[in-house]
Specification:
The complex is a heterodimer.
Chain A: H1 11-27, E1 39-44, H2 59-68, E2 73-75, E3 83-85, E4 88-95, E5 98-103, H3 118-129, E6 144-149, E7 154-159, H4 166-170, H5 181-187, E8 203-209, E9 213-218, E10 231-236, H6 240-248, E11 254-257, H7 262-267, E12 273-279, E13 283-288, H8 298-307, H9 310-318, H10 346-355, E14 362-368, H11 371-386, E15 390-396, H12 398-401, E16 417-422, H13 429-432, H14 451-462, H15 466-483, E17 486-490, E18 493-499, E19 502-503, E20 518-519
Chain B: H1 2-29, H2 34-39, H3 45-55, H4 61-73, H5 87-122, H6 127-141, H7 144-158, H8 173-207, H9 210-217, H10 222-234, H11 236-259, H12 265-274, H13 278-306, H14 308-313
The chains are: A alpha+beta, B mainly alpha.
């Protein structure tokens, strides 16, 4: 007779152990991570790939770059656009063509690269402006003549021509981050990717776990204003819904939310959390390709403008969280408009179509495969059907979508209607630049080609008077209306949620500034 | 056995080569300019063209494929477009997370599926048998992403027992296991049903075999007959099934990695497709294809070693 085998765990003891495990889990709910005030855990929508200020790819990278390579100045947190000095002790505009700066003393580079000097500033700025470097951000310093070093810590930035966006969209961005000249020269032609050298900011990149986490730790040698938390853990989560669930489960202290989730979160916020709604700088519009054979007649394009009920489109797509926008310039900036020059008028649309002999028109509407865009497209489809236009919605993944109107492709002339969204920096020139004649077939997919618009765009870059700039950019958007190629929809809103134990550092448009987060 | 092994190995090489050809053809049929996607809106045309040249996209497609094919067989999968890191490094960083996820899924499916299948076979025709049958079909029918979302909402968001995102701290095995529980359940739950049904069917066949009847005649305890003599034979088809199942679990892993914001090759290839990061797409899919083919090869060789009839048929 064989001996009965004893596994050591009876059914009864297994069930008892499982019960204890379950009870312990209930008794010890997981705690929010920032409660000790030391570690802040935030979500970013993408993982870092390039930490070189000259070749940065995304907003989350900009946030990290600003922490480890201090910029001369950076945006201030709050509801008003402004800036605060970081690497600069002082910085001022001497005249339209000269900016004087003095660095803070005792900013040191890691890895034995010594103290930050004005030579490093000269190297970092001129490196981005140098056409040979092929930096996508060379345009930020397009007006740069040279950086003159006065002494160890101070220098002058000389411009070739007046450049008004310098203080809003160049200096407060990573385009003014200071790298170690010696460290970069030792790297040669290589760019910084995921392994930074000679860090010098308020935080140091301590650990990067690809696709999982980036850890920033306070720089012990930073002798000036410290960041609010000892460590910042940045979790890359592309999907906002996943991030919202992560927040609700207690795994995150701060995250952006999708606009469509805002009403639900505002109505029923998770415990111990604060839901924020910030105005966005983004602009969403339906573009109409004026070079497409079926849409060359401006009356047809104007008919489409009159056929779309913008209010309903925006309400349906954003669940009432966003309001209708009237152009490319966001509220609060010079050039923001109260209305467009076309109203929702289906009868007028039908009349224009009849006048153009375009009854029974068939069009396609290309969109990115996101739920908000699809909902907006479906309402537009119904609006167009109401005036006799049959609209086929074509969904595209991001890789396909962002090349649809490119002159290098084979679809740009077949493109008819397209639902687009761009974001911008807090200067109207950042919005208007994409619709200039040079951008036709690049990012100007409507192929809107207007010399007056271009002249006004150039004028806006050198005009510093707010009222005059306001008039310039309003006139430019009126020209866009007249072309019939644009149906402006919304500027959206930015949703965010954070624990009530932290005070987030955010730009007026809700974008994060990691150094500015503080315990509440 | 040697002849059988060589034939199976040759077949595996052919499968991987064909898969590479199909993969390469497919990604080049997808519209979209990887240079434009990678460099963003502020890049000039010259910058985009330079990147296209760097990626070899200016070469005829057959040249691109030949270079890829030759380099891949030499173990060189190229460099990632954006960060310029070696693709092999990027994939190998992510692979352990996916392997852990799939092993976790297999653990759930084996730990639940085999006992349920045995129980149903032993209790043939009873309410327990019918219950297991219904449950098996139910869990097979529920897609893994639905399991993922509901498991997350219940155990992470509502009860807050388990984490919702991430893979745990490197070096902290306990934390990593806790982070693995829900995603692996999502990946493995459907396979509980498959395995339970497969084990039940095999067990019923084996329990009728003569040596089992002999064992009963000797008066051996039912538990010993079931688990020591019947199950060891009935488990064989399950090994083959799991070999095939790993492929399906790999596809489920993509959803689990996205829903639970876990690192892994599924998420890696998903992101790479969206950004048209071709070297990363081809490298990642090639590595997972090789793993899948190798695992099936191992499963076939195990079955061949255990069952001479399989060897003689091949």
């Amino acid at each position: 007779m064989m001996k009965k085998q004893d596994f050591g765990v009876s059914r009864r003891s297994f069930l008892a152990a499982a019960g204890v495990f379950g009870a312990a889990s209930v008794a010890m709910p997981r705690m929010a991570l920032s409660q000790d005030g030391k570690v802040l855990t935030v979500r970013s929508y993408s993982d870092l790939q390039v930490l070189d200020p000259a070749y940065r790819l995304s907003l989350p990278e900009e946030d990290i770059i600003r922490c480890i390579f201090p910029p001369l100045i950076m945006p201030q947190s709050g509801d008003v656009w402004g800036w605060k000095a970081i690497a600069a002790e002082s910085i001022e505009e001497l005249d339209d063509l000269t900016v004087a700066f003095t660095l803070k003393d005792n900013i040191g580079f890691t890895d034995g690269y010594g103290q930050m000097t004005a030579e490093d500033v000269k190297f970092s700025i001129e490196r981005i402006a140098d056409p040979a470097m092929e930096s996508p951000y060379a345009g930020d310093w397009a007006a740069l003549k040279e950086v003159e070093v006065k002494d160890k810590l101070s220098g002058l930035i000389h411009l070739k021509n007046k450049f008004v966006p310098l203080w809003t969209t160049t200096l407060p961005t990573p385009s003014s981050c200071v790298l170690s000249k010696r460290a970069m020269e030792e790297l040669g032609e290589e760019k910084l990717t995921t392994q930074p050298v000679a860090q010098s900011g308020q935080y140091l990149l301590a650990d990067w776990q690809p696709k999982q986490k980036t850890v920033l730790k306070r720089n012990p040698d930073w002798a000036h204003e410290h960041g609010g938390f000892e460590e910042i853990h940045i979790i890359p989560i592309e999907d906002p819904a996943t991030a919202e669930r992560g927040f609700e489960a207690g795994d995150l202290d701060y995250t952006w939310t999708s606009v469509s989730s805002l009403p639900r979160l505002k109505e029923n916020p998770p415990a111990n959390s604060v839901v924020l709604e910030k105005p966005s700088l983004a602009y969403v519009w339906m573009g109409i390709n004026q070079d497409n054979e079926a849409l060359q007649d401006v009356r047809i394009r104007r008919a489409i403008q009159h056929a779309v009920d913008r209010e309903t489109v925006v309400d349906a797509a954003y669940f009432g969280a966003a309001s209708v926008g009237n152009g490319i310039v966001a509220p609060g900036l010079p050039g923001n408009r109260d209305g467009v020059t076309y109203d929702y008028d289906p009868d007028k649309a039908r009349a224009l179509l009849a006048e153009a002999g375009a009854e029974g028109l068939n069009v396609t509407l290309d969109i990115l495969n996101q739920s908000e865009r699809l909902t907006a497209a479906q309402v537009i489809q119904a609006n167009l059907a109401d005036v006799g236009i049959t609209c086929e919605i074509k969904q595209n993944d991001s890789g396909t979508f962002w090349t649809l109107g490119s002159k290098d492709g084979d679809y740009f002339m077949d493109l008819q209607l397209v639902l687009s969204r761009f974001s911008m920096q807090p200067d109207p020139s950042w919005a208007s630049v994409w619709f200039t004649p040079e951008q036709v077939g690049v990012w100007n997919w409507e192929r809107f080609d207007n010399a007056e618009y271009k002249a006004l765009h150039d004028q806006g870059l050198v005009e510093s008077d707010f009222e005059t700039r306001d008039e310039i950019y309003k006139k430019m958007q009126a020209l866009m209306d007249e072309s019939g190629s644009y149906v402006f929809l919304t500027h959206e809103v930015v949703g965010a949620i954070h624990r009530d134990t932290i005070e987030p550092g955010l730009k007026p448009n809700g974008e994060s500034l990691f150094q500015e987060f503080k315990p509440a | 056995m040697l002849s059988y092994s060589i034939k199976r190995l040759g077949l595996a090489v052919v499968i991987v080569s064909v898969a590479m050809l199909m993969l390469f053809s497919m990604i080049y049929l997808i519209p979209g300019d990887p240079a434009a996607v990678a460099l963003g809106p502020r890049a000039t045309e010259a910058m985009r063209e330079a990147l296209r040249v760097k990626m070899g996209l200016d070469q005829p497609i057959w040249v691109q494929f030949w270079n890829f094919f030759i380099n891949a067989w030499q173990g060189d999968l190229g460099n990632e477009v954006l960060s310029d890191r070696p693709v092999a490094t990027v994939v190998l960083e992510q692979l352990p997370y996916t392997i852990a996820l799939i092993l976790g899924g297999i653990s759930w499916s084996v730990a639940l599926g085999i006992p349920l299948g045995c129980w149903a076979a032993v209790k043939r025709g009873s309410w327990a048998d019918r219950l297991v049958g219904v449950l098996s079909v139910a869990v097979i029918a529920v897609p893994s992403f639905v399991v993922a979302i509901y498991a997350l909402l219940v155990f992470a968001v509502t009860l807050q027992w388990l984490p919702a995102i991430g893979a745990g701290e490197p070096g902290d095995l306990g934390d990593q296991l806790v982070h693995l529980l829900l995603p692996s359940l999502a990946v493995g739950l459907g396979w509980v049903g498959y395995i339970a049904r497969m084990v039940r069917a095999s067990m019923l066949e084996v329990l009728e075999a003569q040596h089992i009847r002999t064992a009963r005649a000797f008066g051996l305890p039912d538990r010993m007959i079931t688990y020591r003599y019947a199950l060891t034979i009935a488990i064989l088809p399950t090994v083959t099934l799991l070999g095939v199942g790993i492929g399906q679990m790999l596809s489920s892993a993509v959803f689990a990695e996205i829903v639970f914001a876990r690192p892994g090759v599924g998420k890696l290839v998903y992101d790479a497709i969206l950004t048209r990061n071709y070297p990363l797409v081809t490298g990642t899919v090639l590595v997972t294809t090789v793993i899948f083919v190798l695992l099936n090869l191992v499963a076939d060789l195990i079955v061949g070693a255990l069952d001479p009839r399989v060897r003689s048929r091949f």
